[in-house]
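Progress against Task 2.4 (sequence-to-structure conversion) is shown through the following example record, which the project officer requested during the mid-term review.
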Amino acid sequence: MVTAVKSPAKSTRARTSTAARKRPLAQTTAPKPAAKRAAVKKAVTKAPMAKTKVVTTAPAAPAADKVKSPKKPKLVRDSFTMPKDEYAAIDLLKQRATGLKRHAKKSELIRAGIMALTAMDDKQLAAVMAQVPALKTGRPVRS
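Structure tokens generated for the chain above:
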């Protein structure tokens, strides 16, 4: 009895060609023979079509049970520069809010400030804006 000597097994990666591995699955499947496709197409086109009645109905009224929730506002991400003492004031306001048993985030405090400014009349807004010093725009220079 003669036994065949097998060569050492190579890894699967080495046996398959690089092009075969990179080829999408859709390209690796064999297409249907042309004769089979033609036969299927012929059978579909020769089949008698059944007559159907077209029934039109009134559009369905929206259900009274469903309550439309208001759309959420689109959020915008932004960054800005502010002096350190004003930035520290945000921390103080956060601590005050915590003392009032109301946790507040920086963004919530800024939004509350915008709401307060919006509620002011033009004279009050001009007075408050006169107190805010102008800053150089852009990122601060690292020192």
